[in-house]
Design goal:
The complex is a heterodimer.
Chain A: E1 7-13, E2 19-24, H1 31-46, E3 53-55, E4 61-67, E5 71-77, H2 86-104, H3 106-110, H4 115-122, H5 126-136, H6 144-147, E6 150-151, H7 158-171, E7 176-181, E8 184-188, H8 190-194, H9 198-210, E9 216-223, E10 227-240, E11 243-249, H10 255-267, H11 271-283, E12 296-303, E13 308-312, H12 330-347, E14 373-377, E15 382-387, E16 391-397, H13 406-421
Chain B: H1 20-23, E1 27-28, E2 31-32, E3 50-59, H2 66-74, E4 88-98, E5 105-115, H3 117-122, H4 126-131, E6 136-142, H5 146-150, H6 152-159, E7 167-173, H7 185-195, E8 199-201, H8 210-234, H9 239-247
Parallel strand pairs in B: 3-5, 3-6, 6-7, 7-8
Antiparallel strand pairs in B: 1-2, 4-5
The chains are: A alpha+beta, B alpha/beta.
């Protein structure tokens, strides 16, 4: 249906099947195919069956989802062994919907009064849609769109930054503030983690990332869960190129005031700290005090309580013996990490939110216990996953690591990071 | 209303050898340097170069190229595709200028405010926020869109009041697409006659470097400076001009 490595996103009105937009691969699907995709879903609905996904024999995948009984989103991925999982497509649709709500508000989307007008208004979300589509095969290690966790950076000087952020947010009459370094959350106020849903945190990070060229911004946003019908203001400031701070606030203060009175008052003394954050971000998402074994190829660590995540994908391996095999490309390692995460959360570390139709293994059924560790040995690497009530760790290691040692390496890695950073 | 180019500042200064050390502060590896809000061009303290800050609003119909103009003036990469701006975005541009009479050098810090048209329509607080403390407005039209040119007079009267003390300049975008032009030279000449506002033309590649943005940035600097000087001379102590002097910074 589509060429390999391609991905397309379609949106239609749920009741009448009028196409609203299509984003993604340069070559659009012909109208007849779009019509059929809608038709087959409608046929199912007419017979009391809900069509949610399908896979062709050549590896293409289609995922449908209807939101608010108003809009239907369809994601189509090309075959040819591209590693886009059903979970990833499902999350893509969810994020796309959340971005639409973020920009336009739920009322506009749930009660369509004028299709042509909605079509026009949806154009204002294209920048975010395109960013989400890029993220599916991202090479920079962003995974929040898949994990539903904020992609984080763990800075060395976090206490100073936290104080500055808290007082800055307070001065801007806000309880929600967040400091981003190279698109990753380096620090956020307590309420940012406790009162926003993880999906909201993810789309807000994406919105801020899309605005990274602006010196400052004042964007009306609707929070998909917290405030879907009343807009609040997102004020964002580029402190240094690559360092942004943002707050969610009400009618006051004005952008002009916040920028001219608050930004330098709270941040000018921290320029050097922010610069060292940038330097760190260019090397790694974890501070230098965390030492990882050389045979760790990549890892994803999730804090399950605060829904934060760090991805580490070392560029070079320090201290490796001469006979060690070279690292896989970071693009491939991140792809493998995403696949292993999907594999683990859909089969073993299942929860309500990750149950998708492809979780077909019979083994967990009938057991009341929850698996806490799993591993997988492939031709390219060895993978180990472990979960505790607080954390989930997904680790990619060299083939040279003996399989019996995987568990030890994983536990050591987890404690190396958590003890050094209090993550 | 506006003053002839080159009457207050040295107009082609970026060509001159003595400007090099100033322009080098806004360049990095032959491209324009990006500045965060906490940064400014750093000159040696003994040179005593003041930074003067101005807020400039970019106004125009949806799709005329407001965001692209801001990116162009700041030397940022032009967006490959047109995306609607769904709120207010600002862009900081530093530009060194030598005053003709005194020979004094100033760094102008323009903050360009850009707000998407539909956001402005949907949310009431956008326009007042854009107009708060504004010093200058760039009115945009596109050479490929006749409607945007015809709308100019509407826009000017909608956004400004005659009592406002703001510099107004008009910019025609997408001038490179002259094959598809909808706006003729005589249209522009007529408009200039009626409104007394200068019209600038931009478009095409940004590879031309500083020369491409210099005329507009210089005109903006010249008119804003002139406006402040006039205000300072008519009122014995102009609070705004005084504030601006103290608000100026050397380095951050």
């Amino acid at each position: 249906m589509l060429q390999a490595e391609t991905l397309q996103l379609l949106c239609l009105t749920a009741s009448s099947g009028v196409p609203l937009f299509s984003r993604g691969s340069t070559k659009q699907l012909p109208f007849s195919v779009v019509g059929s995709l809608n038709g087959v879903h409608m046929f199912g609905a007419g017979h009391g069956a809900q069509l949610s996904s399908c896979e062709t024999d050549r590896g293409s995948r289609v995922v449908w989802e209807v939101f608010q009984e108003s809009l239907m989103l369809i994601a189509v991925s090309g075959g040819g062994g591209s590693g886009i999982s059903e979970l990833q497509l499902r999350r893509l649709l969810e994020n796309v919907w959340n971005c639409m709500v973020l920009v336009l508000g739920q009322d506009e989307l749930a009660n369509i009064r004028n299709v042509e007008r909605l079509k026009r208004e949806l154009r204002s979300c294209y920048r975010l849609f395109d960013l989400l589509l890029e993220r599916v095969n991202d090479e920079q290690g962003f995974m929040g769109d898949l994990t539903r966790c904020a992609d984080c950076l763990l800075p060395s000087t976090s206490a100073l930054l936290q104080d500055a952020l808290d007082s800055f947010a307070q001065a801007a009459e806000s309880e929600f503030g967040c400091l981003l370094v190279r698109g990753r959350v380096a620090q956020a106020t307590e309420k940012w983690w406790s009162r926003l849903t993880s999906q909201e945190v993810v789309v807000l990070s994406i919105l801020m990332h899309s605005l990274s060229n602006a010196s400052s911004c004042d964007y009306p946003v609707f929070l998909p869960q917290g405030s879907p019908t009343v807009a609040i203001r997102l004020l964002g400031f580029q402190l240094l190129p690559g360092v942004h701070v943002c707050v969610l606030c009400g009618p006051k203060p004005s952008l002009y005031k916040a920028e001219n009175e608050l930004v330098s008052r709270f941040w000018s003394t921290l320029v050097e700290n922010l610069r060292s954050c940038l330097e760190q971000a260019d090397r790694s998402t974890v501070p230098p005090s965390v030492s990882l074994r050389w045979d760790v190829q990549a890892l994803l660590l999730i804090n399950r309580e605060s829904r934060r995540a760090v991805t580490v994908c070392p560029r070079v391996r320090g201290g490796a013996p001469a006979e060690a095999t070279p690292l896989l490309s970071s693009r491939r390692r991140l792809e493998l990490l995403r696949l292993f995460y999907t594999f683990a959360v859909t089969r073993y570390f299942t929860s309500q939110e990750t149950s998708v139709s492809s979780a077909s293994e019979d083994f967990p059924q009938g057991f009341t216990h929850v698996p806490v560790q799993c591993y997988l040995v492939t031709e390219e690497c060895k993978c180990y996953g472990l979960q505790s009530p607080q954390h989930q760790l997904f680790l990619l290691m060299d083939l040279s690591v003996p399989t019996f040692a995987l568990r030890t390496v994983a536990t050591q890695t987890l404690s190396a990071i958590t003890s050094a950073t209090a993550f | 209303m506006s003053i002839p180019p080159g009457s207050i500042i040295v107009s082609d200064w970026y060509h001159c050898a003595d400007s090099r050390e100033f322009f080098s502060k806004i360049l990095h590896k032959k491209k324009r340097r990006k500045f965060g809000l906490l940064e400014a061009p750093m000159m040696p303290p003994h040179m005593n170069v003041d930074i003067v800050r101005y807020k400039v609003l970019i106004s125009g119909k949806s799709g005329v190229g407001k965001s692209a103009l801001a990116a162009r003036l700041a030397g940022l990469e032009l967006p490959k595709m047109h995306y609607e701006t769904t709120g207010i975005e600002t862009t900081v541009v530093f530009w060194p200028v030598r005053l003709k009479d005194s020979g004094r050098v100033l760094f102008f810090r323009f903050e360009l405010w850009d707000c998407g048209e539909s956001a402005m329509r949907r949310f009431d607080h956008m326009l007042p926020s854009c107009k708060e403390q504004v010093d200058g407005i760039l009115f945009l039209f596109s050479f490929t869109d006749r409607g945007s040119f015809d709308d100019l007079s509407n826009q000017i009267s909608r956004i400004t009041e005659s009592s406002d003390r703001v510099v107004k300049l008009v910019v025609g975008t997408k001038f490179d697409l002259f094959m598809h032009t909808d706006v003729t030279e005589s249209d522009i000449a007529h408009f200039q006659e009626v409104w007394g506002l200068p019209v600038f033309r931009v478009g095409g590649d940004v590879s031309a470097g500083l020369g491409e943005v210099a005329p507009l940035l210089n005109a903006l600097a010249e008119n804003l400076w002139h406006q402040d000087c006039m205000a300072a001379s008519t009122v014995s102590i102009s609070p705004q001009a005084a504030l601006r002097e103290t608000g100026s910074e050397i380095t951050v």
